[in-house]
Design brief:
Rossmann fold, two-stranded antiparallel sheet, 447 residues, alpha/beta, DNA Cyclobutane Dipyrimidine Photolyase, subunit A, domain 3, Crypto/Photolyase_N_sf, five-stranded parallel beta sheet, lyase, Cryptochr/Photolyase_FAD-bd, 46% helix, chromophore, 19 helices, FAD
């Protein structure tokens, strides 16, 4: 009797999930999810890999997925420990020789699967371009613009598919949790943690597209710093694999066909394509993305050295209100708008002259929608390493444009009492940049 483990990390959903379907090569399959402490409790450049918020959200998601299996009278194993060790242990228990899983983009996760010693059968269920649409990494365009030009004119995305839960899934209920997992759950599970499961993702998708019709105004609203319907917030669910990108794409196309197609509906698909490009870039260059200049030779994996300016940036205490307010929002909520992310990244890299990898690691620690490819490739994109040119932002100009009355800054920095746009005035200790000067003058005029 041939048995295989099925790893549902980045695949905790019932819709458009090939991992659920029958596999003719096997008689029985054993469902499992893992939480590897190295990805959450170890350190990176002296910082924890994950905040307690992010750890608790992941743990809650695993437990919720196990409950969903129980409701279907099925068994899902939860294991907490080194990935390769846990997989080897389960394979021995069930006499399995193969691992079926969602194909990861993070080099570290791919290596962990390889180190299990099991035969790997990977399905890329979290990309738009799957199966016969899969790009050739050897000829992947060097820029997103070239990638977009190559793909977009006749872009066909893998259509989402419905897969019934295979009757092959088998397990001993007594093995669903081991003592290590039980101890970890009793210590770190927080019932009030955020839950980014499939039901929440599908509900957000339906609300944003079909109920609120927020998709119609997305391009105009996407740069807002907060607000319930200015961002789709799909990134939380895409990062966890609880929402299929192909299903999102299909829903946007159906809305365009049934309701209206405009710049905003197109822009959502445009951003999904950006996400897609970074996934393939991460697979193409792998670990080289974590070099100081990304994959530009010579590779330099030496640890970046932070100074006190980085510590102040991490606390939201640089003295530049627009940057500090965005950092405070991240620390409090585990989220930051795309506009905020670009500005705080630019300030850290160019004005504070810190290694971009420090910022990427800080975002990895705190973002509840952390995705390896999107996070590290976007930071490299701002820094101008890899195949990008540097993108420096003018934070005062940006503040006037996206927080003209200063309401966002006053909300996250309640100690600021200045009225109107004067709240964006840098504190005295902040070195004033020459290119800020015309916009600092506007603060005085518009107050």
């Amino acid at each position: 009797m041939r048995r295989a483990l099925v790893l549902f990390n980045q695949a905790m959903r019932w819709h458009d999930n090939l991992l659920l379907s029958e596999q003719a090569d096997f008689d029985q399959r054993i469902a499992v999810v893992l939480l590897d402490p190295d990805e959450y409790l170890s350190t990176q450049y002296g910082m924890p890999r994950a905040s307690i918020q992010r750890l608790q959200a992941q743990l809650k998601l695993l437990l919720n997925w196990q409950q969903q299996w129980q409701h279907k009278r099925r068994v899902l194993h939860i294991r907490i420990g080194p990935t390769a060790f846990c997989l080897q242990q389960l394979a021995e228990l069930y006499d399995a020789d193969t691992l079926i899983a969602a194909e990861p983009t993070a080099p570290e996760q791919y290596q962990q699967l390889q180190h299990s010693g099991l035969k790997l059968k990977l399905f890329d269920i979290n990309s738009l371009l799957q199966h016969q649409l899969r790009p050739d990494l050897a000829t992947l365009p060097k820029s997103f613009s070239a990638f977009r030009r190559e793909r977009e004119p006749n872009l066909w995305v893998q259509p989402p598919e419905q897969h019934a839960v295979s009757a092959q899934f088998y397990a001993d209920p007594s093995l669903a949790l081991d003592t290590t997992a039980l101890d970890f759950i009793s210590r770190d599970h927080q019932p009030t943690a955020a839950l980014f499961n499939e039901a929440a993702g599908l509900e957000r998708l339906m609300q944003f597209i079909w109920q609120q019709h927020a998709i119609i105004r997305y391009k105009q609203n996407r740069n807002a710093l907060d607000g319930d319907w200015n961002s789709s917030l799909w990134s939380f669910y895409l990062a966890n694999g609880t929402l299929s990108p192909c299903y999102i794409w299909q829903q946007v196309l159906e809305f365009e066909q049934q309701q209206v197609a405009n710049e905003s509906t197109y822009w959502l698909r445009f951003e999904l394509l950006w996400r897609e490009y970074f996934r393939w870039q991460m697979r193409q260059h792998g670990r080289a993305w974590f070099s100081k200049n990304a994959f530009r030779p010579p590779l330099d994996f030496s640890s970046p050295q932070a100074d006190p300016r980085f510590e102040l940036w991490c606390k939201g205490e640089t003295g530049l209100p627009f940057v500090d307010a965005n950092i405070k929002m991240l620390l409090h909520t585990g989220w930051m708008s795309n506009r905020g992310r670009q500005n705080v990244a630019s300030y850290l890299i160019f004005e504070l002259q810190q290694d971009w990898r420090l910022g990427a690691a800080f975002f990895e620690q705190h973002l509840l929608d952390y995705d390896c490819a999107s996070n590290w490739c976007n930071w490299a994109y701002i820094a101008g390493v890899g195949n990008s040119s540097a993108r420096q932002f003018n934070q005062i100009k940006q503040a006037l444009t996206y927080d003209p009355k200063g309401d966002f800054v006053r909300h996250w920095l309640p100690g600021k009492t200045a009225t109107g746009s004067l709240v964006h005035q840098p504190e005295p200790q902040v070195p004033v940049q020459e290119f800020w000067l015309p916009f600092l003058q506007q603060l005085k005029v518009s107050s």
